[in-house]
C-alpha cells in the first residue's frame, strides 16, 4: 500500500507540473487568454493579421479568386475570406484586415443573408477592418490621379453602402515606391489618419532604421502645408512577419507546442524567440509600440493555422510578462502612436525611385507594356465622358458604365497598368477593358442621340438618330464614315467635350475619296 500511494502521489505531482502553463483546459480543450489590450510601460507588439491579395499578377483576377490554374501559384481568395470569417467567429478577440474590394465584392455577392449579417457584426465589433478600401491596391507611379480617385471611390462606395463605414488607414504595402500624391490626395483627403507601406529604397530604409525615422509625418503637398500631413509607417523589412513566425499551413515553421501529452514542448523557446524578434524591431522604432504584419501574399487560406499560433503566442508571451502582445489593426496602432505624444520627422517628397538592393532599381515599369498604359489612359477619359452622359440621360437598367468602371478599377492595380503581370494576365486586363467599353459605347450612343434630339428640358426624348463611334480611329478605320451616303442624306459628326472649359482641337475621320476627288491623294 505504501508503494502504491507513492506512485499515485508522483502522478498527481506530475499532473500539477503539466497544468502549470496557465491554460484553462477540460479534457484537452485549451482556452487562451487573447483579450488583453495595450499595457503602459511595456513594449506592445501589435499583431496585424492580413492577406495581400493581388488583383491579378501571375494569374488572372478570376483565377486568383476561385483558385484555378494553381500550377502557377497556389492561391484562392475565396478560401481566404471563407476561412477568415469562420476563424473570427470563434474568438471575439481576433482581428483581421482586408484591402482589395474587387475580391470582396465577388465574395460578398455569393453570401447568404445570414453570413452577410454575421460579417456586418464582425465589422461593427472591430474584428474585421477594411484598410485602403479601393477596388485594388493601385500603383503610384504609372497611374493618373483621376484613376486613383475613381478606383478608390468604387471600393469605398461598396463599404459605405454595405457597412456604413469609411476606412481610416491607407495600406499600400506592395506598390514599387510611393508618391506624395498618395499621402495627400489619396490619404488625408480620403479621411485617412495613417498610411502603411513596405517598399522604400534599401539605402533609405537602412538610414531610417539607424535614426528611428521609419515612421514620419508625410506632407503630401507643399501648397496645402500641414493640412496635407499624414502619419506614415514604413515597415522595417517587408509586409511579412519576422523570421520564424510565418504560419501558413504549408510553411516550415516551429508551432507553439504546449500539449504536455505530446513530445517537443517548446513554449519557453518560442516565447524567447518572440521577445528577441520584438526587441530587435523595437531598437529601430520610436515609442513602445511596434507592428508585426502577420501575413503575406494570399495567406490565410486555412486561417486557423495562423490564428491558433497567434492565440498561443499572445497567451504565453503575456504570461511571461517581459513584453505585451495583442491582436491589433492599423487604426489601433496609429491611435497608440498618437497617444505616445512623440515628435516625428517631416517628409515632403516622394519615395521614388525604389531599389531593393545595389543597382536593382524598379524603374523599368514606368514604360513597360506601353500599349496597355495607353489603352487605360484613353478609356479613363472615355469613362469620364460616359458617366457625364449617363447622368444627363439618367441611369437605366439597360446599359451603364459599371463594367468599364470595374475594369478600369482592376487595371489600376500595381501589377496591371504598371506592366508587371504575366502576359495572359495582361491579356485579361485588356479583355475586361474591351468588354467594358462595348457596354459604355452603347450607353454613349443612346445618350448622345437622346440629347441632340431633346429640348434640354430635363427629359430625354426617344430619338430616331442612330450614332456610331470610331473606336479604331487610331488606325484610320471607321466604317460608318467611309460608307456611301445615300442621296438626300448627310453625314453628321458629333463631338463631345467632357472637360469643364472650351477646347479647340482637330477631329480627324476617314471618308470615301469619291467625295474629295480634287485632292491629290484621292487620285492615286
Number of helices: 15
List SSEs in N-to-C order: HEEEHHEHHEHEHEHEEHEHEHEHHHH
Main β-sheet, in a few words?
5 strands, mixed
CATH class value of the largest domain: Alpha Beta
Structure description:
- This protein has 524 residues and is of the alpha/beta class.
- The protein folds into 3 domains: 44-361, Glycoside hydrolase 38, N terminal domain (7-stranded beta/alpha barrel); 369-453, Glycoside hydrolase family 38, central domain (Substrate Binding Domain Of Dnak, Chain:A, Domain 2); 470-523, no CATH class.
- It is built from 15 helices and 12 strands.
- It has helices at 2-18, 61-66, 77-90, 101-109, 113-124, 145-163, 180-184, 202-210, 267-282, 304-320, 330-339, 370-393, 402-411, 423-453, 479-482, and strands at residues 24-26, 29-31, 44-49, 96-98, 128-130, 169-171, 194-197, 215-219, 229-234, 289-294, 324-327, 346-347.
- Strands 6-7-9-8-12 form a 5-stranded mixed sheet. The chain has a 3-stranded parallel sheet with strand order 10-3-11, sandwiched between helices. A two-stranded antiparallel sheet has the order 1-2.
- Strand 1 (24-26) and strand 2 (29-31) form a beta hairpin.
- Helix 13 (402-411) runs antiparallel to helix 14.
- The longest helix is centred in the C-terminal third of the chain and has 31 residues, at 423-453.
- It is elongated and about 95 Å long.
- The relative contact order is 0.13.
Amino acid at each position: 500500500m505504501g508503494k502504491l500511494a507513492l506512485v499515485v502521489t508522483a502522478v498527481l505531482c506530475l499532473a500539477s507540473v503539466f497544468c502549470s502553463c496557465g491554460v484553462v483546459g477540460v479534457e484537452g480543450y485549451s482556452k487562451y487568454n487573447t483579450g488583453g489590450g495595450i499595457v503602459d510601460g511595456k513594449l506592445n507588439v501589435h499583431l496585424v493579421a492580413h492577406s495581400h491579395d493581388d488583383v491579378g499578377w501571375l494569374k488572372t483576377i478570376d483565377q486568383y479568386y476561385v483558385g484555378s490554374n494553381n500550377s502557377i501559384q497556389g492561391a484562392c481568395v475565396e478560401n481566404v475570406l471563407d476561412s477568415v470569417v469562420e476563424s473570427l467567429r470563434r474568438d471575439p478577440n481576433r482581428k483581421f484586415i482586408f484591402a482589395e474590394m474587387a475580391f470582396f465584392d465577388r465574395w460578398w455577392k455569393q453570401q447568404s443573408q445570414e453570413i452577410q449579417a454575421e460579417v456586418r457584426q464582425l465589422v461593427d465589433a472591430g474584428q474585421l477592418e477594411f484598410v485602403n478600401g479601393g477596388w485594388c491596391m493601385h500603383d503610384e507611379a504609372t497611374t493618373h490621379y483621376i484613376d486613383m480617385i475613381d478606383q478608390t471611390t468604387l471600393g469605398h462606395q461598396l463599404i459605405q453602402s454595405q457597412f456604413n463605414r469609411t476606412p481610416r488607414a491607407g495600406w499600400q504595402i506592395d506598390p514599387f515606391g510611393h508618391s506624395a500624391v498618395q499621402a495627400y490626395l489619396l490619404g488625408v483627403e480620403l479621411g485617412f489618419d495613417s498610411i502603411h507601406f513596405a517598399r522604400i529604397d534599401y539605402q533609405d530604409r537602412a538610414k531610417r532604421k539607424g535614426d528611428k525615422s521609419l515612421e514620419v509625418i508625410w506632407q503630401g503637398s507643399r501648397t496645402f502645408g500641414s493640412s496635407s500631413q499624414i502619419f506614415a509607417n514604413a515597415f522595417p523589412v517587408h509586409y511579412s512577419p519576422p523570421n520564424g513566425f510565418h504560419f501558413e499551413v504549408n510553411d516550415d515553421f516551429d508551432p507553439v507546442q504546449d500539449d504536455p501529452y505530446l513530445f517537443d514542448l517548446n513554449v519557453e523557446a518560442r516565447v524567447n524567440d518572440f521577445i528577441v524578434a520584438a526587441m530587435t524591431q523595437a531598437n529601430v522604432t520610436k515609442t513602445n509600440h511596434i507592428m508585426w504584419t502577420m501575413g503575406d501574399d494570399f495567406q490565410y487560406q486555412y486561417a486557423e493555422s495562423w490564428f491558433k499560433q497567434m492565440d498561443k503566442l499572445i497567451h504565453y508571451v503575456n504570461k511571461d510578462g517581459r513584453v505585451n502582445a495583442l491582436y491589433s489593426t492599423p487604426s489601433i496602432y496609429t491611435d497608440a502612436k498618437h497617444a505616445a505624444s512623440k515628435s516625428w520627422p517631416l517628409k515632403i517628397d516622394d519615395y521614388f525611385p525604389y531599389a531593393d538592393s545595389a543597382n536593382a532599381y524598379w524603374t523599368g515599369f514606368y514604360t513597360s507594356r506601353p500599349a496597355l498604359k495607353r489603352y487605360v489612359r484613353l478609356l479613363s477619359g472615355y469613362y469620364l465622358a460616359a458617366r457625364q452622359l449617363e447622368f444627363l440621360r439618367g441611369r437605366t437598367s439597360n446599359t451603364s458604365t459599371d463594367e468599364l468602371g470595374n475594369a478600369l478599377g482592376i487595371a489600376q492595380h500595381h501589377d496591371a497598368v504598371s506592366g508587371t503581370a504575366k502576359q495572359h494576365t495582361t491579356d485579361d486586363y485588356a479583355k475586361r477593358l474591351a468588354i467594358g467599353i462595348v457596354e459604355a459605347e452603347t450607353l454613349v450612343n443612346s445618350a448622345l442621340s437622346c440629347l441632340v434630339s431633346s429640348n434640354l428640358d430635363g427629359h430625354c426624348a426617344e430619338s430616331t438618330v442612330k450614332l456610331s463611334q470610331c473606336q479604331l480611329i487610331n488606325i484610320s478605320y471607321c466604317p460608318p464614315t467611309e460608307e456611301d451616303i445615300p442621296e438626300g442624306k448627310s453625314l453628321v459628326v458629333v463631338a463631345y467635350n467632357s472637360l469643364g472649359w472650351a477646347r479647340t482641337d482637330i477631329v480627324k475621320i476617314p471618308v470615301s475619296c469619291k467625295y474629295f476627288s480634287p485632292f491629290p491623294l484621292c487620285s492615286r
